[in-house]
Design a protein that fits this description.
The protein is mostly helical. It contains 3 helices and 2 strands, in the order H-H-E-E-H. Strand 1 and strand 2 form a beta hairpin. Helix 1 runs antiparallel to helix 2.
């Protein structure tokens, strides 16, 4: 089976060659119509592949989202059970439990607790750097459409393929 780009190149070459020949317009149209049939069939096949990839990608994205939600729920359940187990051990005064494949014990740790962020002296505050400035494409587009010249930017007319 011939690749789409090969068919497209052959069609373009035939159109150029026919344009140079002294033929009536109907003959040129009929000849190009015969050549375009294979191109259209191949293009439709490629479009079906594109649709299939898009549907598959959407399904994978949905699955990833569902799996992330499931992971968060499992992590939450594990943390809840850990708090429950710790409170039961503390309530009974048990400091250590050992069994096959598992050891439970308490470890001492410390953590800083902020009681009032507004009371903390400035020297103990971290200042995050501001994000770097970035072009506002909507404002630039509006300015250019209004006739204002914006150095370093221009509006470019494009075409995009729509598969309906």
């Amino acid at each position: 089976m011939t690749a789409l780009y090969v068919i497209a190149n052959e069609y373009r070459a035939a159109a150029e060659k026919l344009a140079d020949m002294d033929l009536d317009p109907q003959t040129i149209v009929d000849t190009l119509e015969g050549l375009s049939g294979e191109l259209e069939v191949k293009a439709q096949s490629v479009a079906y592949m594109i649709r299939n990839f898009e549907v598959t990608a959407a399904a994978i994205k949905q699955h990833e989202s569902e799996q992330a939600a499931r992971r968060r729920a499992i992590e939450t359940r594990a943390e809840g059970l850990k708090r429950y187990l710790a409170s039961c051990m503390e309530a009974t005064g048990i400091e250590k439990i050992e069994g096959p494949g598992v050891k439970l014990s308490f470890r001492k740790s410390s953590a800083v607790v902020i009681d009032g962020e507004d009371l903390i002296p400035q020297e103990y505050m971290r200042v995050k750097p501001a994000p770097p400035p970035e072009p506002d494409k909507k404002a630039i587009a509006d300015a250019i459409k209004a006739g204002v010249s914006v150095p370093g930017a221009h509006v470019e007319n494009r075409r995009s393929l729509v598969i309906a």
